[in-house]
Amino acid sequence: MPVTRIAEPVGTHMPFPRDEYEQRWEALDAELARLGYETAVLWGRSGGSYDRARTITYLTNFPSHSPGQEWSSGDSAVGRSFAALIVRRGHEPELHIAEPVITVEPRYVAVTSVAEHMEDIGEGLAERLRELGIEGRVAYLGDDFLPIQINRTLVAGTPQIEWVAEDFLLDQIQSHKSERELDLYREAGVVACEALTAFMEALIRGERQCDAAAQAASIIIRSGGGFQRVGCHTGPRSELAMWDNPFYGYSDDAAQPGEMVRAWVYGPIRHGYWIDPGRSSACGDPTPAAKQLVEQGAGLTEYLISQIKAGVTPREVGIAGDDHVHKLGLSEDMGGAIWDLYGHGLSTFWHPPIIPAHGAESFVNGRGFQNVDQPFHAGQVFTVETFLREPNIGTATFEEVFIIQEGGVERLTDRTPMLFW
Questions:
Q1: Beta pairing class for 341-346 and 278-282
Q2: Interior CA angle at 274 toward 269 and 279, to 5°?
Q3: Whether the predicted model's global pTM rises above the 0.70 cut
Q4: Exposure string (b/e) for 132-141, b if CB count within 10 Å is 16 or more?
Q5: What is the pLDDT of residues 167-224, one digit of tens each?
Q6: What tens digit of pLDDT does each residue of 119-160 get?
Q7: What is the pLDDT of residues 60-118, one digit of tens each?
Q8: HEC profile of the chain
Q9: Burial level of 27, CB count in 10 A (0-12/13-18/19+)?
Q10: In 62-90, which positions are buried (b, 16+ CB within 10 angstroms) versus exposed (e)?
Q11: Angstrom distance (rounded) from CA 399 to CA 113
């Protein structure tokens, strides 16, 4: 099958020079060797969303033009919005897509070899793997989101291959950021803070949620970035639901004086890299109960951050957090979490490991890189997030983003106040 070799210079308008991506390919090559593979196929989906763009974005900077996961019937290609990367040790990766190669702008991608599959990306990829003589154990990343329709034709067309799911293949690599990545995160922190501060101030003034969200979105877009969601909630109904209208993340309601408000900005705000700070406060003057809850949430957030530095483990931080919650007099019923964690890593999406919460001492490590006993290292981008609930008042939620350093952390999102009074 034809594989297009891009003749003109590639990657001239990427967030990093091409050698940054070449270093990532080298790191992946070494990881495949460590795991005993010669070949891997990595999947991504960037059409219409960002959450599963992360793998292909990280390795190639390729984005799909598709508006979403389109119909796989009629004249539409099976797999439109998806992309696959064939990675063979010692070779530059090959990008495989279900849209015309002519739509791929060389200036935005790191790879020079691209193949289009205008009928079925699964069948086309199987054909290419047979041409390359690939057989035996092949790692693949995408087991948790690749459609059965694609996987069925791919597996049927490659009887010589034993497919092995390795959905944590990139985790160790992505947890070690280059200096260029850290500088990009510093830029993202500035933009995210400006947007979040404007968002919160509008909600505190009693503006409609949608108007407040529009102000935050405008700041992000004017910076040249994008977002997955600018979400908020207000009032007692925010106690159990993170967002008001979950379809968009905001409604046309406005908070009433004294009611609690929360706002979050998150997504690939700068060049595909995820950042997700959040804050809580109250509209106008807070009630005493709301004020106490918000201050407890901010205090718990600051305490957890103070426990983090290179060499400490996520479990140790989680245990310290659980102890602090109990000292505050909060119970599971009052201080339970919407997401049962105290924080997580960041890269081109949320990234393991987590900081376990509400039972950190007995937390059982999950699959892959979800190892809460592996110490933090300098250069990790991480978050602390807290969720404290008071029945009939609301939930005070905070999230702060930082770079872990040897003696503590470098805050990225502290330009937005923790408290607005």
A1: unpaired
A2: 80
A3: yes
A4: eebeeebbbb
A5: 999 999 999 999 999 999 999 999 999 999 999 999 999 999 999 999 999 999 999 9
A6: 999 999 999 999 999 999 999 999 999 999 999 999 999 999
A7: 999 999 888 887 766 678 999 999 999 999 999 999 999 999 999 999 999 999 999 99
A8: CCCEECCCCCCCCCCCCHHHHHHHHHHHHHHHHHHCCCEEEEEEECCCCCCECHHHHHHHCCCCCCCCCCCCCCCCCECCCEEEEEEECCCCCEEEECCCHHHCCHHHCCCCEEEECCCEHHHHHHHHHHHCCCCEEEEEECCCCCCHHHHHHHHHCCCCEEEEECCCCCHHHHHCCCHHHHHHHHHHHHHHHHHHHHHHHHHHCCCEHHHHHHHHHHHHHHCCCCCCEEEEEECHHHHCCCCCCCCCCCCCCECCCCCEEEEEEEEEEECCEEECCEEEEECCCCCHHHHHHHHHHHHHHHHHHHCCCCCCCHHHHHHHHHHHHHHCCCCHHHHCCCCCEEEEEECCCEEEEEEECCCHHHCCCCCCCCCCCCCCCCCCEEEEEEEEEECCCEEEEEEEEEEEECCEEEECCCCCCCCCC
A9: middle
A10: bbbebeebbebeeeebbbbbbbbbbbbee
A11: 40
Instruction: Count how many Cα atoms sit within 13 Å of the Cα of residue 51 in the half-sphere of its side chain.
Output: 7
- Residue 25 carries which side chain, given as an amino acid letter? W
Residue 219's identity, in one-letter code, is I
